[in-house]
Task: structure prediction
Amino acid sequence: MLAKPELPRHEFHNGNSKATCRKATAQDIEPLYLMIEEYAQKGIMLPRSRVALQRQIDLFVVAEIGGKFVGCGSLCRLGADLVEIRSLGLSDEHKGQGIGALIVNELTEEARRQKIPKIMALTYAVNFFLRNGFEVVNKEIFPEKVWTDCVNCSKQHACDEIAVLKMLN
Result:
């Protein structure tokens, strides 16, 4: 029997905690769904069905501490030169520990590997993204996003999220 290949992991140490970030697998669908649903119930993230997560699992990364799921994020291609960070979330007890930055860094490195020069997000956590090298921009510069997701959003005509952008070198 062949051994299952080890997924690449990137680590972050904060005191006694060691967070790792890796590509999501099918075993992560339920914790992904539950985390995203919790944010969606608060009105700060678009919901994702389990079926959608299963179809898009290769777009997600997850953060763990001691094998326990603590956060997630995904990267969605919007055009030849633009990707979006989506579904970025952390368990409440792990916020403010640098794990969100670990996830964003992993997604940013994936955009670099794909040679995509622009990475954007729509967010309420503007200061978090500013600390991670993004700048606030006018969301109307992203027609790819407007026609992909915003057209189906209940907040379409009263969107209060802030657009942020990071140019990759």
